[in-house]
Every structure is written in structure tokens, then in C-alpha cells.
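User: C-alpha cells for this complex, please. No commentary.
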Amino acid sequence: MAILTSAERSSKGLWKVIGASSLGTLIEWYDFYIFGSLAVIISTKFFPADNPTAAFLSTLATFAAGFVVRPFGALFFGRLGDMIGRKYTFMVTLLIMGLSTVAIGLIPEYKTIGFMAPVLVLILRLLQGLALGGEYGGAATYVAEHAEPHRRGERTSWIQTTASFGLFISLAVILLTRKSMSDEAFMDWGWRLPFLISIFMVIVSYFIRRNMAESPIFQKVKAEGKVSKNPLKESFGNKFNFKFVLLALFGAAMGQGVVFYTGQFYTLSFLQRVCNIDFDQTNYILGIAIFLGTGLFIFFGWLSDKIGRKAIMMTGMLLAVLTYRPIYDKIYQLADTNTKQEIVDEFKVAKKEEKVLHGDYGAEKANVTTQHRFYTDGTQQDEIKKEYLDTSTGKVIHTDHAISIKLSNKAMWLMVLLVFLQVMYVTMVYGPIAAFLVEMFPVKIRYTSMSLPYHIGNGIFGGLMPTVATYLVARAQSANTLAEKAGQELPFDKPYLEGLWYPIIIIGVSFIIGIIYIANKKEKEIAIISPKEN
Amino acid sequence: MNYIRRFLGIVWILMAIVAGYYLIVSQAIPQFQSGNPDDLVPAIVYTFVLMPIISGGLLVFGWYALKGEYDEL
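Assistant:
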């Protein structure tokens, strides 16, 4: 087997390689996540507001479009990366991502340009998905091909931190932007700033990456004339390699992707939409949990070099399967005001007339009635009723109801702990996976072969997770409502937990496949040529 | 262990068939027939994205497992 020696492997400047690769990937994740983090606001800007649920689902569908397209990006850019090189390919993906993000921040709203607004958002979101599909495999491969074999897990885990840290930065930028202006200004134009500032980060990252050298292993393969002429055919048309693609997908990436999106995205959606916790507080909770958990990516990456990748990833999956239901049940209970003691004397009602900023329902003004309730444990609940008024007659044309719960400090920190546990599972499955995937495939088709299972696992199985889980919860709640109206016994005891069946089943299957079919390897020299040729 | 790996190949093949049936018959077809434009996107995703990946992928994986391709990896 042709192996690079230590001398051939660049040790000097390894941190520069890791830094440049991680920074670019971090920016790509940031770009990708701000859309998801602002999904609720975006839905009111680019989709008709007549039906908020439909608008929200439309946004999630757009979100999913960004995910579903990722495997196609993996194929397209993976092929390029295996033919012309890792460095040039992930520079192109960086530019596509950055320009698409800035463009989303510049699109006029639905009320200004009509149907073109959601269409443009969708196209740009698809471009973001394509770029992300090409970026990750390139960065992971690039770092892995520079790293020492016995430290590959640790070295590539820096790339792995970027996915969570990108989400953390996106939440932080959104919170800072919100705090720096009034709510009205943020809803009106401030939400565009997180998209627009991306351009500065992309420019910096582009110039850093431009000065980097190509992966030494790829250079060697190229010099020896062993570059693949058709990476797609060699990856997926060759049974020997294709069986590893399938194993990587079903035994690792599928479960990892769902753990990742459950722990970071579904939890955000659950806190905001099921538990009705205040928007800022949910972002604080998730932000703190992710910040505390980020170091664990490096720890588990390092540990995977010592005890093996499989052992850690499978433990993370098993813990997720066993504990998701109790964790989410506890989260729900912490926010459930029905079980709390209200301080009746402090109950207040506030009424005001508000200007409707975006012409929702064709109204210019709305009457807003807020009922403030306070509870003995420090929880606060605002029940907001917004009546949109017809401009000419002054009659109510539409009424919105919303609940916003602000947890006490103690409950908030308990919530941070519960989210942190999920983030820890994310770090266990995600920290070692770059090294795991890179080691599974030969260098000449590595970019293509590892990118596809990763992006199917994350983009499709993981990315659709919040949509599927939200649908399952809504279906259970709807069934309970119908049964209640009919005077029948409720079919679902805890409808808010129904969404968890998706991650539990998918992760469970991935765990069984992984535990039975995958070998626990600590390190493996990177093969330059296909194992079949050896 | 190889016996278990091969035997489970049958389970993955059956799971692929069940998943395919669920995605197409229980989800996609009723949504295609509903006439509701909101149902069209999920129906397309079920038919052209999820079905080939989940059902097709799992079917091939199960077949490889059954044939002993994953023995002693």
C-alpha cells in the first residue's frame, strides 16, 4: 500500500492548515445557519402571512431544500475536488456560499416584489446547500491529509467544532443585532444585518485560503498520474467502494446527522414552538450549551485516536436513543405553567394600539392585549392577543394569539444542562466522524466518496428532522383535540414527545448497523490508491 | 458474528420494503392525490429523494450483507 511517510507529511504549519480550513468552514456554517435561526422572522417577510403555520412550514421546506440539495453539492464539488484538487474546490464553495448569503439579505420582501421574493430566497438557499455540500468534505479531507495518522481524530475535530460554533456565532450575532436596536427596527430591517456582514468574513477567509498549498497527498497522487478520471464512477460504480459508502451512510452518518439536528435544531424549535419560551431566552440557552460543549469535540476527537472512533460514536448514539424522551419531557415540564402556582395578585393586563409594520392581513393598525402572569417559582408568562383592524371600517379582520414564557434563572440553568447533554451527544458522534470517513476511502476518490454519505446523513436524515418531528407533534395534538371534542379518551398521553420517534428510530437503526458491521479502528494510514489495486 | 451480519441482511431488505411501502403508499400517493399544492413538495421529496435513498440504499446494503460482503471488515 502506498503510504506517505512522516517526512513527506507537512508538520510545519499544520496549525495554519487547520486554522485556515476551520475558519472557512465556520463561515460557511454561519452563513447556512442564520437562515435557520431567523426562520420564524423570514417566514413573515417572504411568504404570505395569511396562514402563519403555512408560512412557517414553507420556511422549513425552504430550509429542507437547503439540506436536500447538499448531497448534489457533495457529488458536484466532490468530483471536482478529486480531479483538480481540494484547495481550489473549497475556495469556490466559500465564494458561492458567501455571495448567496449576502444576496438573501438584499432581497426585497414579499409585499414589495410579490412572488419573486420567495422564489429568489429558494434559489439562493439551494445555492447555499450546494456550496455546503462541497465545502465540508474538502476541508475535512484537506486537514486529514496533512495530519499525523495517530492524531487524525484530534486534528480533524477542529473542523468538527465549526458546525456547532457556526451556530453559536449565528445566534450571538442575531442576539447582538436585536439588542442594538428596537424590536420594530429589527423586524423591519435589522434581521438583514447578520446576512450582510457575512461578506467581510468571506473576504478574509478567501484571502487566507488563497495562500494555502494543496494537500501533500493529493499533490503526490497528481504527480504520479494517479488522479481519478471519473470519481463518480469509481466511487459508486465500483462495488468494493460502494459498499463502504453504504456502510458509512447507514452505520454512522445517518445516526450522527440525526443526533446533530435533534440536539441543536429540534431543541430550538421545541423550546420556541412547543414550550413557548421567549425567543431571546431560547437563544441564550442554546448558545450557552453549545459554547460549553464546543471543547468536547476536540476531546472526543482526541479520545478517538486513543480508543477508536466507533466506540465513541456508538456510545453517543446509544445515549441519545435512551435519554431523548426523559430529557424532552423534563424540558416541557420546566416550561409548563399549568403545573406552577400563579401569584394571582400580580396578574396584569396591558392594552395598546400598535402600528402594523408589514401590512399583514392588509391592516395598518392592531389592538394588542397582553396578560402578564407571574408564578411563585419566578416564571413569567405573557399571553398576547393581537387584533388586526380593517383600515377603513376599524373592524377586527384577524386575531393572532401568542404565548411567551420567561423561565426563572434556576429553570433556565436546568434547561441549559438538558440542552448541554444533547450537545454532548452531538460532540460524541460528530467529533470523530471526519477522521472516520476519511479513513474509509482511498485518496483518489476520497472527496467524492466521503462527502455523499455525510451530506445524505446530515442533509436529508438530519436536515428533515425538525420538519418531520414538528409534523408528528402537530398530528398528535390534532388527534387529541379531535378526541377531546368527541368526548373520547385522548390517544396521546404526551403529544409533545411524539416528534422524538423519528430520531429514536433512525438513530437506533444506525446504532445497530454501526455496532455490528463497523470495525473499531483507532488509526489507519491513508491509502493513496484504491484498496482494490493493492 | 458473520452469521449475524448475513442474517441481518434479510432484516435490512425487509425494512427497505416496509419503508418503501410506507413512503409511497401511505405518504406520497395520498399527498399527490389530495390536490392541495402544499402537499406536492413533500410528495415529491418522498418519491424522488427519500424512497431511493432509504429504500433503495437499504435494499442494496441488505443484499450486500446477505451475500457476505461485510464479513470480517
